[in-house]
Amino acid sequence: MALAGLLWCIGALLAISVAAIPAARHRWGTPAVYGSALCASTIGLGLALASLLGGGALLGALTLPVGLPWLGAHFRLDALAAFFLVVVNLGAAGASLYGLGYGSHEEAPGRVLPFFPAFLAGMNLVVLADDAFTFLFTWELMSLTSWALVMAHHRRPGNAAAGYLYLIMASFGTLALLLAFGLLAGPAGGYAFAAIRAAPPAPGVAAAVLVLALIGAGSKAGLVPLHVWLPLAHPAAPSHVSALMSGVMTKVAVYGAVRIVFDLLGVPTWWAGALVALLGGVTAVMGVLHALMEHDLKRLLAYHTVENIGIIFIGLGLALAFGANGMRAAAALALTAALLHVFNHSVFKSLLFFGSGAVLTATGERDMERLGGLIHRMPLTAFVFLVGSAAISALPPFNGFVSEWLTFQAILVSPALPQWLLKFLVPAIGALLALSAALAAACFVKAFGVTFLGRPRSDAARQAVETDRWSLATMLILAALCLVAGILPGYFIDALAPVVRALAGAQLPRQGELDWLTIVPVAQSRSSYNGLLLFLIIAFAAGLGAEAIHRWASGVSRRSAPWDCGFPDASPATQYTAGSFSQPIRRVFGSVVFRAREEVNMPPPGDLRAAQMHVRMRDVLWDAFYAPVAGLVSYVADRLNKVQFLSIRAYLTLVFGALVTLLTVLAVWR
Amino acid sequence: MAIGLQLLVQICQMALVLALAPLFAGYVRKVKAHLLRRQGPPLAQHYRELLRLLRKDVVLADSASWVFRVAPYLIFATTWVAVSLVPTFAIGLIFSYAADVIAIVALLGSARFMLALAGLDVGTSFGGIGSSREMLIASLAEPAMLMVVFTLSLLAGSTQLSSIAASMQASDVGLRFSIALALIGLVMVALAENARIPIDNPATHLELTMVHEAMILEYSGRHLALIEAAAYLKLLLYVSVIACVFFPWGIAISGQGPAAYFAGIGVYLLKLAAGGFLLAVFETAIAKMRVFRVPDFLGAALMLGFLATLLLFVTLAG
Amino acid sequence: MDRLALDVAHLLAGGLVLVSFMLLYQDRMTGLVNNFALHALVVSLSVAWQAHIQHAPHLYITAAIALIVKAIVIPLALHRIIVQLGIHRTIETVVGIGQTMLAGIGLVALSIMVMLPITAKAGTLTQQDLAFALSVLLLGLLMMISRRNAVSQVIGFMSIENGLILAATGAKGMPLVVEISVAFSILIALIVIGVFLFRIRERFDTVDIHALHQYRGEQL
């Protein structure tokens, strides 16, 4: 049975994790740990794929006698879990393969190797958990191991603060989930998911659970305004762990939201859909705007994770709204779009983080303002990073476009919704989605253009060398997957059908059997897309053009200094930088969203001092939500400071008082 | 056999747009010159320029990478394919189901992505300024475009250009104010996307006012020819989209036979002539905007799209 | 009522909403006044069309009054005022045009959402007219609060009045007396405001009402 096999894989990962503690001291430890993690997650990937595509034959449930004595640990492999296991194990296998090469640059393997397999195991277990206790326990395992990985380089400036913030937000999120499960289980305390499913909660309780689940899963996934830790913590980890956290762990959080909201909560209400979709739209735009203002390559990618989580939640919100109105086909469309984007994002985000890791090892720089021209030194990394950039910018024929296109198709069905609020809200969310897609393209022109194109801006960038073969192999595989999922999306949509059928009660028409591999979400006359055909015609047209020109016209080219409107070859510092590239966008959007202010100090004529420009930006969300909380906490902490300097007698009085109070409460309660 | 015939018609369309695009751009330039009481270059001037550029050697900057050399071919091919998917003289051609209007816009987005990268590749300040501004304009134009698409799909129940054209041709659409709003919005988006006045000036080479020209400053020879051809094709694309969606009269339906096709081509040419004339008049009558007025302009286009959708909801409710 | 009549009424009422947006978009005085003339013209056309399809001849008089007073007399007077005050420069807006327009879209959505369900029993025409009229009204208010210049506030005020006329004609059977008295009160309001504008300018050298606040004796 597949579930048992998967649990064995997870067991193997945990065993590797223990074995890594002594092994990390040896030079062979790194390849051994990553190699065995690669084996375990590849087997897991195979099993998950087989159970997803096997049509239900391999699915099943299992109870292990560990955990709470009266509950045991329930595990269940259904279509939804199988799909997310594919995502998790694909990312895990990729990160392990990449780690084979990248791990050799690690200065403190003892801080990474033991936690890496445990982190993989934690993510796998969350997806398999079938009772609230196991879910929360494995969720915490995932959080803590990833926290340990974030803190691997804790001496670098900023990392300790990032880890601290991550720990607080993770605890807060788990608390929300704990309360959500408490409400779901009800006074009788049926913590197994089967028991929860059998007794759906009352509407008021369901609303509370929905909000709590959004807070709990959303804080892990990076939903605005709970995203603040994510762009700090994800880049702080080693790059393959960043890829796992951004590409996979956020998806596990999405899994948590889907499991609770779609599976356990019963029939949704329409306002839940409006809320989720609106949060998604705001998250998408805020994420991409933050990313545009960012010059740190890995942090930019982390902000894009926030954006893509927003896009996924738009799809989920639409699915809820359609489902609440009994429009099952439309709900299936929206849910397919969201889940396909889950898969796509995990692929290209891993790819991009791997690329940034390659840049980091080659140059030691994450600041884009000190990079440039890497395409000459690292041609293959540049190529795969370009593919990833095109995919995340939702450009055809890559995979990011397909899922965003499906989301747009779901948005275009929205006029059929009966509620006026949704009728007006959904087009606005569509505009937000289009805005975020276009801004993402701008952002990746910046990210790729400033990092890889142009001329080197520092010596480190001038002397970069191409990365190792393991890393390149990983990135090439993922880049190929981006293209394949983009030109043959029908098969991927069909693979999602059992998941969607289980959650939305309907599924899209089978795509794999349509003529010419076109995808048709609703009807041929309504909309259709054929990535394969487009790809082939474009390749054919480009090839034809190149062939004709080189045969009949000129094929000669020669090199010379750049023209640049007749200016002589200037220093690389005169190039457009990341900051100057995003200046127009900062001026248009940032003046409102970030209260960006530019201040120019121009010395008077005759004065030889350099002119200076300062840009000030404020994070409005931080000011609104977090700064007051932080202020309150430090105020209370100041007050409580006195308690540190009491006499023994006073401490004993405190303890005694607490004891008596508790006993009184107990007496009154009874 | 039927498929072969359909394929032939599709290839005819590809050849037709490729042949027409420089002529159309030349025609607009000619009309503008006449409006300014100038003689203007001959209609065939753009062909001559393209041929001359194709025969010239390419001069590459020292710091140019393969992206710089590959980009022109990809930009040209993507734009060309995008135009071929728009109904020009006939609807329902065989490839038209490969992409709906959202995918066509996204294809143009792919071309723009490559072009903006090429602008950054050499590492000069002008290329950067062009890329940065182009991406700003695009990021504002795309939501506006989507709202127009939303309005059209609300009316026609489809995002497929052929289906939209067919449903607009059927006269039960009536006199809808939303259509006019969507048309204005789409025209504004088209002006911005094609670097026309008042957003950008295709004729300028003043460094600080150009957007499109700044990006392609380092290009020469056959590369420049391809990018210029892609720009002509893109202009033709937007005019064709406007013509087939808002003025679908006289368009042939796939499978009607050569006579209908030729009639369709004739009507299409007439529409192009009218569209080009109006464009030239508009461009002559209006001044170029500052770059930071463009967000207001495109914001107005977005607002028109929204308003069109809202008003349509009102009529559909009634 | 046939389809075409309905479509034209929709066209005109929708056009009025659009012109209201154009008022928000304008940032020059002369353009603003010309735009207001267009606003009044569309209102009078709309009223005339209502008169035609409702067979209510007294509405023609309303249309004529709107045309003469608001599309011709008041704009001419405002042009004179602007020239005499020498303020044909850019308007200072309190918030940016983009945000104002976004807020405007929100207001239109709000008024449609409010009006359509509660007028569901009324005819299609009334339903549309009321929704659009409320939009015009709210947009006029938005214009008044988002502009600092006294002249543009006057124009915002008068565009609100146009919205009221649209609502009244759509609701079938507004007494002529009401319209005439409203028109006159608007005219008198204009005269009073015009006089005040000159007084303000003489006294403070500006018509930016922001400048008046410092004389109010209380802090902003």
Tell me what you see in this structure.
The complex is a heterotrimer of chains A (670), B (318) and C (220). By secondary structure, chain A is mainly alpha-helical. Chain A has a domain at 620-669. Chain A is built from 26 helices and 5 strands. Chain A has helices at 2-23, 29-53, 79-102, 109-112, 115-128, 132-150, 159-185, 193-198, 203-221, 230-236, 239-264, 270-293, 297-324, 328-363, 374-377, 379-392, 399-412, 420-452, 459-462, 469-487, 489-504, 531-552, 578-581, 583-593, 620-640, 648-669, and strands at 60-64, 73-77, 557-560, 597-601, 612-616. Chain A has a two-stranded antiparallel sheet with strand order 1-2. A two-stranded antiparallel ribbon of chain A has the order 4-5. In chain A, a hairpin with an 8-residue loop joins strand 1 and strand 2. In chain A, helix 14 (328-363) runs antiparallel to helix 20 (469-487). The longest helix of chain A has 36 residues, at 328-363. The two termini of chain A are 48 Å apart. The model of chain A has no long low-confidence stretch (mean pLDDT 91). Chain B is an all-alpha fold and 318 residues long. Chain B has one domain (2-317). In chain B, helix 3 packs parallel to helix 9. Chain B is globular and about 60 Å long. The termini of chain B are far apart. The mean pLDDT of chain B is 90. Chain C has 220 residues and is mainly alpha-helical. Chain C has one domain (3-215). Helix content of chain C is 78%, strand content 0%. Chain C has 7 helices and no strands. The longest helix of chain C has 29 residues, at 176-204. The radius of gyration of chain C is 18 Å and the shape is globular. Chains in contact: A-B, A-C, B-C. Chains B and C meet through helix 7 and helix 11 of B and helix 1, helix 4 and helix 5 of C. Strand 3 (557-560) of chain A pairs parallel with strand 1 of chain B, so a sheet runs across the interface.
